[in-house]
Design brief:
By secondary structure, chain A is α/β, with parallel strands linked by helices. Chain A is 43% helix and 16% strand. Chain A contains 15 helices and 10 strands. Chain A is globular, with a radius of gyration of 22 Å. The chains are: A alpha/beta, B mainly alpha. Chain B: It is a multi-pass membrane protein.
């Protein structure tokens, strides 16, 4: 009896209709939280009448796309972090897109040479310092994080987090592996505590007096300023655009790529074009305090008030290329230990 | 009339009840095990093709730390859950104290709290900006974190405590059921032979309950081993951390699968050792439990101790997290309330319900087939099909995708070639994939409890039924299932609550636009917006309470249904 009920229930569930690719749809595999991209998708639906369907996960979507093969329902993949999007290219899961709109909206250094991905936003990896305990201008570069004068005064999240890995990769690209190892050992020696938590937690730690300096993405700071409970905490730190006078501040991207198997290819390209348009870019800028990839759109007033960012001109592919070295380096210096 | 026998005898080499009629059962069991084992086998297969050999790097750098941290965490959580689980199970079963009837079911409530949720609740309470430290600073006039010492919740100790608090109900549940099934007269005999209550507990009660406790403990340990949410949040570097690093940061899925395989071997060795150490025991108990348990009548101070034994884990594991979530949910209600909640809740309930029934049915078929044909081969099949529980959910999800997408694309290719029609993806990316994944993952829970309950039914029951002309199937339906009603319900409900909380596999495998409560919570929690996830977290906890109360009743009733 139980068996029969269970079997029947399983069959009914399996037979439930799901995401059958009809016309007027576009299917998204997203590494970004659904609620973050929803306002953009709503605007897209309103403008074009094309429905959007989303699966969000932090890992495993590339494997799913790869195994589903030519029958995969996914049209586009949305990611954060250059390495993750680069991996899709390396595994040959994404297709080239030729679109005048996209090429006009997104500068050359923020897209793949063959159109295999396009950045939608950029974010700087910044340094935060205590307004009380660190003088303005006392630290201005990533390199200085390894200066022994900061011993026991720096907080960061895990060295293995993609954002830190990308920063370390950019250091390898600029200074070579050996010098970067010296730098990372110096930084490790300066840590106030074992790497833990996320970027906001490090800003909180400064407010708490655990440390005086931290590393974090720009929009986390912006989001904290926009949250009335967290604003008093964020207001205790000063923001530094590292290496502003030199090679520029390390940036990372969030981006989008068309899958090779896309069943709704035209709609997918429409979505990509829409997301690069001034209208969508403004939503990105305002709602999540990121830097729009489209140079025609200015950052939000809040972000602009921090001063101008001078991005490091290092090609993003170069950063992705040093990923494996960076990951192993973090292990070698036992950064998280 | 009561009878409970522990026969210590050489294991019979003859299959006890093998008859021709049982062939169909064996065939069914083999087929089901093979299907259920597919995801685990897929991961083993992936382990054959690493991007690069990850081990030299790991051994040189982080592996020693991963291993020692993993062992420490498992030992810590194991001891903690045993102490809490056994102490509370024994107290509510054998001691009379105010509130005993309430604690009988309330001790299970922490089970409804997902480990990742309790971790963030305690972090928000105990970290620097939380109310506890703030109060301390106000009282003592401290200015900053450098003025005083406070235990760091984000640590190995913290992770041990968090996992222990929400996982002990596995031990409690199975131990209590086992205690209830034991004959009070055994206890009386031991006491009359001069043993104290404590010595009787260790020399008589616990050895008889051991198979059940071992099942509970092995579930706890497997869950600890494959936990990612809590250890990641607390920056505790277990093998799972290494696995995800290899997969996500190095893009080396094969290497990650190798680490998963190593973890699997770890579990298999543990479970085998436990079974080996009691290989010569066979236990049968007549289920004639009409004799009431004589609870201890205790002095006031002792009653207070009993109360404390139950109150402490209950408060820490349930009251504190539920109250905190309630408070946050209240404060952020306007921002958190969302009409999608109803749909998400329904998704969770329907999916978990289906998965629980499927898992139970599969568990019964496997456990009963093994009873019919208890050979080495059947044992191996049982073990193999339970391994899904010992793997991190995200890895298992990839293991599910491989055979399902493989099947879909094979069928699609065949149809395109022969009839020129494309069937697309039939199973991948559907709720079927989710039910399948849940079944694979939680089969160990249902098959384990059904098996240990079946083992206690004396074979003379089967013999009587079969000699009266019943087939094995009818014997199962007319004799065993009614007797095991309590166990079956319990097993189904445990799986149900587990499915409600399941996160990593659900995230990866779900259809488009499909949210369960757990995935909904995760999208906020993973973006450091913990307050916004309080309300849906609270709903997961509340949704788990009803089945838990049902579960507890069914166990209490095992003594009244003879």
């Amino acid at each position: 009896m139980r068996l029969k009920i269970a079997a029947a229930a399983a069959l009914i569930l399996a037979a439930l209709p799901f995401a059958a690719s009809a016309d007027g749809e576009v299917n998204i595999y997203s590494y970004r939280q659904a609620y973050l991209i929803n306002p953009l998708l709503k605007a897209f639906e309103k403008e074009t009448g094309i429905e959007t369907n989303v699966v969000f996960a932090k890992n495993g979507l590339a494997e799913r796309l790869e195994r589903e093969g030519r029958n995969s329902p996914a049209d586009v993949v949305m990611t954060v972090d250059i390495s993750r999007i680069n991996e899709l290219v390396e595994r040959d899961l994404v297709a080239s897109v030729r679109s005048d709109t996209l090429e006009k909206n997104i500068p050359e250094n923020l897209r793949h040479p063959d159109g295999k991905w396009f950045a939608l936003t950029t974010r700087g990896r910044l340094i935060y310092t205590s307004k009380d305990r660190v003088k303005a201008g006392e630290i201005t570069t990533y390199e200085e994080l390894a200066d022994p004068k900061w011993k026991g005064r720096i907080c960061t999240r895990s060295g293995k987090h993609p954002y830190n890995i990308a920063l370390i990769s950019s250091m390898i690209a600029h200074h070579g592996l050996e010098e970067t190892e010296q730098w990372l050992r110096g930084l490790k020696a300066n840590l106030a505590r074992k790497p833990q938590g996320a970027d906001r937690d490090q800003i909180k730690a400064i407010a708490e007096g655990v440390c005086d300096v931290s590393i974090g993405n720009s929009y986390y700071y912006g989001n904290m300023l926009q949250d009335e409970n967290e604003r008093p905490i964020a207001e205790q730190v000063r923001l530094v655009f590292p290496n502003a006078d030199g090679r520029g501040t390390h940036i990372n991207i969030s981006g989008i790529a068309l899958t090779k198997s896309a069943p709704n290819r035209d709609n997918a390209i429409k979505l990509m074009e829409f997301l690069s348009s001034p209208e969508a870019q403004r939503i990105y800028a305002e709602a999540n305090t990121e830097y729009p990839a489209n140079p025609a759109v200015k950052p939000s007033g809040l972000v602009a008030s921090w001063g101008e960012i001078h991005p490091d001109a290092l090609p993003l592919q170069t950063i992705a290329a040093h990923r494996d070295e960076a990951v192993k380096l973090v292990d070698r210096v036992d950064f998280d230990g | 009339m009561t009878e409970a026998v522990t026969v210590v005898a050489p294991a019979t080499s003859e299959p006890l009840l093998a008859k021709r009629a049982s062939r169909r059962w064996i065939l069914a069991a083999t087929l089901i095990s093979a299907i259920v084992a597919l995801p685990v086998l897929s991961v083993l297969y992936l382990a054959l093709f690493p991007e690069e050999n990850i081990w030299p790097h790991l051994i040189d750098t982080t592996l020693p730390r991963y291993l020692t941290t993993t062992v420490k965490l498992m030992l810590g959580v194991g001891v903690l859950t045993l102490v809490i689980g056994l102490a509370t199970a024994w107290t509510v079963t054998m001691c009379e104290f105010p509130g005993r009837r309430f604690f009988e079911w309330a001790m299970l409530l922490p089970f409804a709290v997902p480990a990742y949720v309790i971790a963030y609740v305690y972090t928000s309470l105990l970290d620097y900006a939380g109310p506890v430290q703030r109060a301390l600073r106000e009282v003592f006039g401290w200015q900053s974190a450098s003025d005083y010492w406070f235990p760091e919740i984000r640590s190995l100790g913290g992770a041990t405590l968090m996992l222990g608090l929400v996982l002990y109900p596995y031990v409690y549940l199975l131990a209590r059921a086992a205690f209830l099934e034991q004959s009070p007269s055994l206890f009386a005999v031991s006491r009359s032979l001069g043993h104290s209550a404590l010595s009787t507990f260790f020399r008589v009660v616990l050895p008889i309950a051991r198979p059940a406790v071992a099942v509970g403990l092995s579930l706890v340990l497997m869950e600890t081993l494959n936990d990612f949410g809590t250890v990641d949040f607390f920056a505790v570097q277990t093998l799972t951390a290494g696995l995800f690093d290899t997969w996500m940061n190095l893009g080396n899925l094969g290497g990650a699968a190798q680490i998963a395989t190593t973890m699997l071997a770890f579990v298999v060795i543990l479970v085998t050792l436990e079974r080996y150490s009691r290989r010569k025991q066979k236990q049968y108990a007549a289920r004639d439990n009409r004799e009431p348990i004589q609870r201890f009548n205790l002095s006031r101070p002792r009653q207070a101790i009993c109360l404390a034994v139950c109150l402490i884990p209950f408060t820490l594991g349930f009251v504190v997290p539920a109250a905190t979530l309630g408070l946050y949910a209240w404060e952020y209600f306007g921002e958190s309330w969302n009409p999608d909640f109803v749909e998400n809740t329904l998704n969770s309930l329907l999916l978990s319900g289906t998965a629980a029934l499927t898992t139970l049915a599969v568990g019964v078929v496997l456990a009963y087939s093994r009873r019919l044909h208890d050979t080495r081969g059947m044992q191996v099949l049982m073990r193999l099909s339970g391994l899904g529980y010992a793997m991190p959910g995200a890895v298992l999800a990839v293991g599910v995708i491989v055979p399902l997408a493989g099947f879909d694309n094979w069928l699609d290719g065949a149809l395109r070639r022969t009839v020129g029609v494309s069937s697309g993806l039939l199973l991948s990316g559907t709720t079927f994939a989710l039910v399948f994944a849940y079944t694979v993952r939680f089969l160990a829970v249902s098959a384990g409890s059904v098996e240990s309950a079946l083992q206690k039914v004396t074979p003379s029951m089967d013999m009587a039924s079969r000699s009266l002309g019943d087939t094995p199937g009818r014997t199962l339906v007319r004799v065993h299932l009614p007797m095991l009603r309590g166990t079956l319900l319990t097993a189904a409900l445990v799986v149900f609550v587990d499915c409600m909380k399941e996160l990593p596999a659900t995230l990866i495998l779900r259809p488009f636009n499909f949210e369960t409560l757990a995935t909904y919570v995760y999208q906020f929690a993973s973006d450091e917006r913990l307050f916004h996830s309080a309300l849906p977290s609270l709903i997961i906890v509340l949704a788990g309470i009803v089945p838990i109360i049902l579960m507890s009743r069914s166990i209490a009733n095992t003594r009244s249904i003879a």
